[in-house]
Amino acid sequence: MVQENNEKPILEIKNLSKKISGQTVIDHIHFSIQKGDIYGFLGPNGAGKTTTLRMITRLIFPDSGDIFIDGHSIKNDSVLALSRVGSIIENPAFYLHLTAKQNLNLSAKLAAVNVPKTRINEVLSIVDLKEAMDNKVKTFSLGMKQRLGIANALLCYPSLIILDEPTNGVDPMGLREMKTLIKHLAEKEKITFLISSHMLREMEDLCHKAAFIQGGKIVEEGDISELSGVYQVTNLEDLFFACIKEKLT
Amino acid sequence: MKNIWTLTSFEFKRTLTSKMLLVYTLIFTAMYVLTGILFHVYGADSTVVAGYGQSFPVEMLQSSLTFTAVFIAIYVGEVLIQERNNGTIKFVLLRSVSRFQYYLSRILSILLFSLLLTSIMLFIGYVVGISFFGWGDTFVFYSVVTSGWHGVGVTLLAGLAFGFAYFIFGLIALLLSQFIQRISTLAMLMGISTLVGQYIIIYDQVKQYAIYEHLLFFHINLFEKSFSYSVTSFGVLIAYLLVIGTAGYYLFKKQDLYV
């Protein structure tokens, strides 16, 4: 029984499509993510990564298909499905006139689960922002906002965290810290990550599995080391181009 | 319910501490002081007031039509257009907040803002009115001539009616704000609509169904017209609330948010 639960995908995307202004931007995509994965959602700019993530988080609505989070359909029960999901879509948005702590306080009040006050300090410590917690967010650098975004995503004890281009604006030092943090959270806290990016080198030592998206279609999906074997490549960048090239030809 | 309360109280606190509210207060103060000065210089015939401090606040409500309409539209822009443009709408919606809860919290915030703005206008009216004319021995508001606490009661009731009509106007702005990208566009559109709307209400057959009639006269007609006329007017505003509120919610519910 335990084994069956482990095999149940935490995120399942079925036959998802979306047209914007008459143009198909997502074309019947299908993939699933198992618990504990760090899953890369990779593609060039304009491939449909953010659109897909927006559909997962219900900011926009698919024309067809469905999304299941922990078995709950996002169409039928979005609040329950998203109750254990933390996310940063495109860029983290905060009330700039409030402090980091006040923002997280508001976020905690709006959560479906009970978030104790100590959790706010806890997540701020995890992202190393405890000293800046009483500063207004408008004084934060982009990197600090990204870290605060991760703190916000962590707030509700999520089982799935969705990060859209999380390395945007993060300096090399911050980038290394972020990778370490994601690996730590995946291993120790058993949090599943879905990370979209077009920065392949940054994703290489982070993700175990990936879906490659091009022109709104999933061109390849699976275990990165297995796919590397199939395409006879040694790194993620070569794998990406091999998948895209394969599709184009 | 918890989320609606959290979002509404957050918006209300934000409004109370905003610089815009201070600016609105200063504009109303300047307008009221100017009216007081004009009364002293040119007399009652050149102004809309009778020259009694106790009736000055309620007399001044109608003259603020365009200002109040624009301020309400700007506020609506802040609670929806600005949230969308700044991306803070996703800060809320990515938590366990449904679109219904979010939209209802916007409606309640507009109601509170309308009442707050009316309260500020009445307060400034009393301060400026008493400063210029003293309390006075009579309360005069159209055919209502009274004094003392009864006059205060009439003022408060008229204020409530005035605030309610502007709340409905805010709901129309909220619906339109789903198609508009800039606060300034919404404010301009709603401001111009009040100027144009004043011409619609010259037609007796339709005027009771036009929101502009109620922006200008609902708080006056309450004391000037028959009880059944006031009930019908109130019913029209409730119908606006139900139709515009529901239509706005369904639009918002289906809207893709590219934030």
Automatic annotation (TrEMBL), chain A:
The keyword ATP-binding applies. Keywords: ATP-binding, Nucleotide-binding, Transport. Residues 11-240 form the ABC transporter domain. Pfam families: ABC_tran (PF00005). GO terms for molecular function: ATP binding. Belongs to the ABC transporter superfamily. This is ABC transporter ATP-binding protein.
Automatic annotation (TrEMBL), chain B:
Keywords: Membrane, Transmembrane, Transmembrane helix. This is ABC-2 family transporter protein. The keyword Membrane applies. It comes from the Bacteria. GO terms for cellular component: plasma membrane. The keyword Nucleotide-binding does not apply. One of its GO terms (molecular function) is ABC-type transporter activity. The chain crosses the membrane at residues 21-42, 62-81, 102-135, 155-176, 183-202, 227-252. The lineage of its organism: Bacteria, Bacillati, Bacillota, Bacilli, Bacillales.
